[in-house]
Amino acid sequence: ESDKTGGGDNEAVVFQYSTTLNLNTSFSGRDLLYTRIKTGNFATPFSSKTNNSYLAAANSNGNTLKVDKIWYQFPVGDNLKFWVGPRIENYYMLASAPSIYKPVLKAFALGGNGAAYGSSTDGGFGAAWIQSKDDPSEARFAVSTNYASKGATSADNETGGALFTDAQSKWLTQVEYGSAQWKVLGAVSVNNCTKVDGSQSCKVWTDYYSTEKGKSRTGNTTAYGLRAYWQPEETGAIPSVQFGYDFATIDDDGATGSVEDTAQWMVGLTWKDAFIEGNRLGAAFGQRQYATEIVGGADDPADDNFVWELYYDFKVSDNITVTPAIFGGEDTYDGASDSSDDVFGGLIQTTFKF
Predict the structure, then answer these.
(1) Which of 144, 143, 139, 138 lies closest to 178 in space, CA to CA?
(2) How much is the pTM?
């Protein structure tokens, strides 16, 4: 992987891994107690926040097994579903995923990791209502809402506890309509800062996928996300298409240079059964979250950033997939004119499932 982030050329061949153990337990056949245990040794460049080389498969636990996720999911009647747990993220608590594109880079997950979706792994809860249809292929409505808080597992008097505290939190609501072949989704999330003794700390839940200005926060953020996808009934030359667009409004502090609004977008294309039945060709491109309005009228120097990826999933067997991929980006972080934050990389990812 070749990386120019930080003002220098760095080239190396690295070997990194992650291991995931999924434990699924059901008590009634309809509920689910989910536990995910992960470990890995990912480091720079494939776990870098700034240069758009953070992999969807990356894990940096330093070869130590850790409980990565744990939550309980259960239905009520035929139309309602609930989640609650001490280690969960908001996008797991949705009636359906906002994206059908399978990314190599985490920046292209969720239809683009902008301001609307994505949260840290913390305590939370959620609910979803799904319209009943006799024919599962028919379009239907669904509404999801969920909450995750950085203070949900702490008893600190000021920043601990969920809901009625000043801990950093994210409330996400998604409305969707469509079928397995096509869907349109809209989302809104409210991102609250931590407030202690009159001062506040504002977490950027997606700072891995933002420019330097795009991740700047001086107050609470309200973000909006639009997602849409379509896939052909038969595989062939026509790909599945995924679109994502986020924009956000920030409660800026009024100081010159404070960011007021941000935006992000992506397009993902997938060709199933590409060249050989069972294989997959994927490509995505777009922009990392960047500032669209700054107090004082300045521009984000990285507002023309552009990122992309191209990969091919080759199924060696039902349990082994080999994925060669390349990716790149321009002005990915601070927009430096000397190309110090341009990046180009490649990898061969091997996935074993059993």
Answers:
(1) 139
(2) 0.90
- Stated as kind and residue range, the H or E segment containing 140 is strand 140-149
- Between CA 94 and CA 126 the distance in angstroms is 8
Q: Given pLDDT bands bounded at 50, 70 and 90, which one contains residue 285?
A: very high
| Placement of tokens 């927009």 in the chain | 335
How many angstroms separate the CA atoms of 107 and 56, rounded?
8
**Which residue is listed with tokens 């991929």?**
325
Nearest to 64, CA basis, from 85, 86, 42, 46: 42
Place of tokens 């969707």: 176
Residue 120, Ramachandran bin (φ over 0: left; ψ between -120 and 50: alpha; else beta): beta
Mean pLDDT of the chain: 90
Query: Contact, 86 vs 35, CB < 8 A?
Result: no
Burial of 336 per CB tally in 10 Å (0-12, 13-18, 19+): middle
Question: Is there a contact between 132 and 78 (Cβ–Cβ < 8 Å)?
Answer: yes
Concatenated DSSP letters of 149-172: ETTTT---TTT-SSSSSSS-EEEE
Contact of 144 with 127, CB cutoff 8 Å: yes
Q: Which long-range contacts (CB under 8 A, 24 or more apart) does 21-30 make?
A: 28/74, 30/74, 30/75
| Least confident stretch, 160-169, 180-189, 316-325, 335-344 | 160-169
Residue 9 pLDDT more than 60? Answer: no
Three-state DSSP at 109 gives helix
How far is it, in rounded angstroms, from Cα 163 to Cα 161?
Answer: 7
What's the pLDDT at 248? 95
How far is Cα 186 from Cα 144, in angstroms, rounded to an integer? 11
Taking only the tens place, the pLDDT of each residue in 203-219 is 667 777 899 999 999 88
Looking at the chain, the number of H-run helices and the number of E-run strands are 0, 19
SS3 state at 85: strand
- Which H or E run contains 47? none
